[in-house]
Amino acid sequence: MSEPTKVAVIDIGSNSIKLLVARRGTNCGRVKPAHESALNARISAGINRAEPRLSEEGMAVGLGAIETLLVEAAPHQPQAIQLVATSAVRDALNRDEFISRVQQATGHTLRTLTGTEEANFIGRGLLSDPALVDAQDYYVFDLGGGSLECLCFQQRSVTKAISLPLGCVRLTERFVANREARLAPDEIAALHHHVAATLQASGFAFHLPPHAPAIGTGGTLVSCRAILAARQGVPFAASSPRLAVESLAKLAREVGAMPLNARREIPGLPSARADVFPVAVQTVLALMGAGGFAALQHSFYNLRYGIADELLKLCANRG
């Protein structure tokens, strides 16, 4: 029996660079992970500037992470490899320089996704989540370092998909005067107002029935879940994917009251995310408030799974 076709996706995000090696499920046909990995490599510093540019250091760190993950993917013998970049790269005025460096160093073309493409690939990836196989109508929100993707599903089809400049690195740069210090009440108020106003101006409507679930993806929710699991003394895999607004609000109050050095010691929170985490959780809370959500259900099935689904389909069509 031949080995199943595998593909590899490297997702160059604002906060981290992630690898997914995936194949088709033998029975369900959904995308199944064969190997996953992530490296902290924040290439997005300065993303909120009027003329954002990738720094020399950011490009070097990003390229190093890509090369490391390509080496990690090689033993799995993927039939196709796709590198994709999101908000930090697409918003950078010098993105072509970074794309050229990646091409020269690795031989791979870096595909820069538009916000709409990113949102739709996230939606496509969610369809492979076995926990959502019976879900018909639901919202999906993916919070990254540079952007927030918002989707609405009806009858398991995307009816609305938008990308908003509400990523946690971007908003931290905009609203936080001192990342080393505690989050100030006026900073929290300004952040919540900005998130609510941006959502309203976008035209994204929360029109599904009140019981419709809200699904959350992205590193912020992974960190929230990991922190709560550590506090409960359970492995991450055994933790609940349901993140209630009360638990998130309590966590936001606690981390917001800590200086940066204390946040870096929180079990479950990656040290590299400690500076933007208070704003990230407050952004999630502002979103939940705008939509009237009592909880978010965490899912790992996002952008990388959507790209993998496309690659696997292309490989199958080639025969």
Describe the structure.
This protein is of the alpha/beta class and 319 residues long. The protein has 2 domains: 7-116, ATPase, nucleotide binding domain (Nucleotidyltransferase, domain 5); 129-298, Exopolyphosphatase. Domain 2 (Nucleotidyltransferase, domain 5), CATH 3.30.420. Helices cover 42% and strands 21% of the residues. The chain is built from 11 helices and 11 strands. It has helices at 56-73, 87-90, 95-106, 115-126, 168-175, 185-202, 219-232, 245-256, 260-263, 277-291, 303-318; strands at 7-12, 16-24, 31-40, 80-85, 110-112, 138-143, 148-154, 157-164, 214-217, 242-244, 295-298. The strands form 2 sheets. Strands 8-7-6-9-11-10 form a 6-stranded mixed β-sheet, sandwiched between helices. A 5-stranded mixed β-sheet has the order 3-2-1-4-5, sandwiched between helices. Strand 1 (7-12) and strand 2 form a beta hairpin. Helix 5 crosses helix 10 (277-291). The chain is globular, with a radius of gyration of 19 Å. It starts with 6 loop residues before the first strand and ends with a helix. The model has no long low-confidence stretch (mean pLDDT 94).
Question: What are the key terms here?
Answer:
single chain; 319 residues; Nucleotidyltransferase, domain 5; 2 domains; 6-stranded mixed β-sheet; 5-stranded mixed β-sheet; 11 helices
